[in-house]
């Protein structure tokens, strides 16, 4: 796993180059600085930690959407494998962290990407790696929570997962259904229809109905000038599709949902998914993690004492060997 690789360099570059978010209400911008007041005050002091996972076949526009959502460039050095490589490819997990600040509210955002998802010919096992990653973060949290320094735990649990549905099929694929069945008890899944600009209005409505009304979104990293204003959009021979235009797609709705429900998504993660994990684990091992830690400490102390005794014995033997018969 390449965790946060090159992150510092990326954050610095992003701070220099990112287009500044607009806060004016007329632009309809809802940033995380608009969190409710109580949360806002808490977040100003503590900072806000949020982990978002993105899952979907490669090429569906995941990175572009994430970059559009957070006005950042999370994947500047991305390597895109060819078809031959993809056949044998397994899912990888790549986590990148950026720190974003808006009106004094700090957000430590971790985006967990899952390249390789659905690429292999046999994609049956491809969400095992994802389940393993989510469980590992719960396990880390559980361990930290039962340790001494409980006040400063870094929360790396996955709070939300954007699941990208292809706009090119006739609805959900078997893999989409399998994934959602396997993971809905572990993470908050938000299905999104990617590249919604490739669908006509009728096609979009039909796909939404077949797939539980997900957000139909588009993404773009390009700024285009429209009527004297620079906007994010996709330029086609027949016109411009605007990312932040609610008549063109659900991008703004998706961002508003994410931003206004960040706290809820964290609470559901804590109260439902994490609690599920804790009780399952308790059933499996039969003891709470606190006891396991105590047990581990005791074993460690016994081993250390044993090691000390052996070292003393060796030292004694060496001393005896040095005292040859002729020496005394
Ligand atoms: P990823 O592999 O899922 O991360 O996909 P990328 O973000 O790298 O996008 C793959 C290709 O799709 C790129 O050529 C993007 O410019 C294009 N793309 C991204 N978002 C959209 C979109 O909303 N609509 C359309 N038509 N193309 C998009």
TrEMBL record:
Q: In this chain's numbering, which residues are marked as the site (Important for dimerization)?
A: 168
CDD domains, per the entry? CDC_Septin
Return the GO cellular component terms, semicolon-separated.
Answer: ciliary membrane; cleavage furrow; midbody; spindle
Q: Which residues form a coiled coil?
A: 293-320
Q: Which GO terms describe its biological process?
A: cell division
- UniProt xrefs under InterPro entries: G_SEPTIN_dom (IPR030379), P-loop_NTPase (IPR027417), Septin (IPR016491), Septin2 (IPR008113)
- Could you confirm whether the keyword Zinc appears in this record? no
Q: Annotated Gene Ontology MF terms?
A: GTP binding
Q: Where would you find this protein in the cell?
A: Cell projection, Cilium membrane; Cleavage furrow; Cytoplasm, Cytoskeleton, Spindle; Midbody
Keywords for this protein: Cell cycle, Cell division, Cell membrane, Cell projection, Coiled coil, Cytoplasm, Cytoskeleton, GTP-binding, Membrane, Mitosis, Nucleotide-binding
Q: Record's Gene3D superfamilies?
A: P-loop containing nucleotide triphosphate hydrolases (3.40.50.300)
Which intervals hold domain Septin-type G? 46-284
Which PANTHER family does this entry report, sorted A to Z?
SEPTIN
Protein name per its UniProtKB record: Septin-type G domain-containing protein
Organism expressing this protein natively: Hirundo rustica rustica
């Amino acid at each position: 796993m390449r965790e946060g690789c090159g992150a510092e360099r990326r954050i610095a570059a992003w701070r220099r180059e990112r287009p500044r978010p607009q806060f004016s209400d007329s632009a309809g911008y809802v940033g995380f600085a608009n969190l409710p007041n109580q949360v806002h005050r808490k977040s100003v002091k503590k900072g806000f930690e949020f982990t978002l996972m993105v899952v979907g076949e490669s090429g569906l526009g995941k990175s572009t959407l994430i970059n559009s959502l957070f006005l950042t460039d999370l994947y500047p050095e991305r390597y895109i494998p060819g078809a031959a490589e993809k056949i044998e490819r397994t899912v990888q997990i790549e986590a990148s962290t950026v720190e974003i600040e808006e009106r004094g509210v700090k957000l430590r955002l971790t985006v967990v990407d899952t390249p390789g998802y659905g690429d292999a010919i046999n994609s049956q096992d491809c969400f095992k790696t994802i389940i393993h990653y989510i469980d590992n973060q719960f396990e880390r949290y559980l361990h930290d929570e039962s340790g001494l320094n409980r006040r400063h735990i870094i929360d790396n649990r996955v709070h939300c997962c954007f699941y990208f549905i292809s706009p090119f099929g006739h609805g959900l694929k078997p893999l989409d259904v399998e994934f959602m069945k396997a993971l809905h008890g572990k993470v908050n899944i938000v299905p999104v229809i990617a590249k919604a600009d490739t669908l006509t209005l009728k096609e979009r409505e039909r796909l939404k109905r077949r797939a539980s009304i997900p957000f139909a979104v588009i993404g773009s990293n390009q700024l285009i000038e429209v009527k004297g204003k620079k906007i994010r959009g996709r330029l086609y021979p027949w016109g411009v599709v605007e990312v932040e235009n609610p008549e063109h797609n659900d991008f703004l709705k998706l961002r508003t949902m994410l931003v206004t429900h960040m706290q809820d998504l964290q609470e559901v993660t804590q109260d439902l998914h994490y609690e599920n994990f804790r009780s399952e684990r308790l059933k499996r091992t039969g003891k709470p993690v606190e006891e396991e830690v105590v047990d581990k400490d005791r074993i460690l102390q016994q081993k250390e004492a044993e090691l000390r005794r052996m070292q003393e014995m060796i030292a004694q033997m060496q001393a005896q060997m040095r005292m040859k018969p002729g020496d005394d």
